[in-house]
Each structure stands twice: as structure tokens, then as C-alpha cells.
Design brief:
This protein is an alpha/beta fold. It has 9 helices and 8 strands. The longest helix is centred in the middle third of the chain and has 16 residues.
């Protein structure tokens, strides 16, 4: 297995036992929960208190980091056309502080970022957090549903393949094309604010 500085995983609808087994197989001993809302009504074993207790029983520490590294910002200025703007979020002092805290934790523990989406390409853990960790020189491995681990670079290749039809023929290089692919994918899958219907707007007015 390649050497990774830290990992990421999406809990999706995994049974709790399978989820913990995937973490153990990767040698993970700390979960960094980067969900803005660390709760799940459909899968309550992934709600914060339940998850923390189950992980503790398995010898894995839990840290809630969604306040600084979550993908659903509270401030309106961090949305563009009602969609969470990952590029704007990445420039915030809170995000940079959370990233530094995460890097410090990874120097001491085998850390795994956790969010809800199964597929890294659908989640801010890849499109926002892992992207900026990689830019700082850290190797991130994404734990997939079948237990295989995909490097950030491999996931980026899948991103480029997915974005191929949108490729700018006049892009000056791979870096520019990748940045555009990140931007388009983020706009497609990032958290969207609900637009009130005329009736609900009148009721709230």
C-alpha cells in the first residue's frame, strides 16, 4: 500500500461494523468529522454521540471539525448563486486554521476525514479539504466502498475524465485544466441553499 499522511471516507449507508472494519484495515486511529451537521436521521449510528461512542469502543478517537472544515458555510458571502463557494471558503482564516489543526493531528495520529457522501468526487472532503492538503504536500488516500484506497492524484484523474467534455481547448496546461474541473465539479455538487417558494416567502414575510 502506498504511504499516506491521512485518509478520507464517506459513511453513506454503511453498517457500523463494516465502517469500523474499513478504518481498522487502513490503520486509522482518529476520525476527523468534517460534516457541518454531524447527524444522520436515516442512519443514526452516524450521529455524533452514537458514532463517537462506537469509535471509542473500537479504539478510535473522534474529533468534530465541521465548524471550520465543513462544506455548508453560515455566512452568505461564502455562497455564489446560492451554492457554497469552495474557493471563497478556502481563503477564510477559519478554514486555514482548521486545516493547520488537521495537519498537526495527522503528525501524531493516523487521521481519517469523514463526511457523508460515499463518492469522493461528490464531497467537499476531496474537492475542498484534500485538495488544499495536497497543495501543502500531504498525501491523502480516499477509502472507497470496497476497501480499496485511491490516492488524491488518482481521484483527480477521475475528475478530469469526468470533466473531459467541458475541457477548455485553450487551457495553458494541466494545472489550469484541473483547477477548472475542480471549480465545475464543486458548483455541481456543493451544498445549495433552498430557494423559498412564493408561498413560503409570503408566510415568512
Amino acid at each position: 500500500m502506498p504511504s499516506f499522511d491521512l485518509f478520507s471516507i464517506g459513511h453513506s449507508n454503511s453498517p457500523a461494523e463494516r465502517f469500523v472494519a474499513l478504518l481498522h484495515d487502513a490503520g486509522v486511529d482518529m476520525i476527523a468529522d468534517v460534516r457541518s451537521v454531524p447527524a444522520s436521521r436515516r442512519f443514526p449510528w452516524f450521529s455524533q454521540n452514537n458514532l463517537a461512542a462506537r469509535l471509542a469502543a473500537a479504539g478510535i478517537r473522534y474529533a468534530a471539525m465541521g465548524a471550520t472544515l465543513g462544506g455548508r458555510p453560515r455566512e452568505q458571502r461564502l455562497y455564489r448563486d446560492g451554492v457554497a463557494d469552495y474557493e471563497a471558503i478556502a481563503m477564510q482564516a477559519e478554514f486555514r486554521s482548521g486545516l493547520s489543526r488537521l495537519i498537526d493531528a495527522a503528525a501524531q495520529s493516523r487521521v481519517c476525514l469523514m463526511c457523508a457522501e460515499r463518492e469522493p468526487l461528490d464531497c467537499h472532503r476531496f474537492l475542498l479539504i484534500a485538495r488544499h492538503l495536497a497543495e501543502r504536500g500531504l498525501a491523502v488516500g480516499h477509502i472507497l466502498r470496497d476497501g480499496s484506497i485511491e490516492s488524491q492524484a488518482e481521484t483527480e484523474q477521475r475528475l478530469l475524465a469526468l470533466d473531459d467534455k467541458n475541457c477548455d481547448l485553450f487551457a495553458t496546461g494541466q494545472g489550469e485544466r484541473l483547477a477548472a474541473a475542480y471549480r465545475r465539479r464543486a458548483y455541481a455538487v456543493a451544498f445549495r441553499q433552498k430557494v423559498p417558494t412564493p408561498r413560503s416567502a409570503a408566510e415568512n414575510g
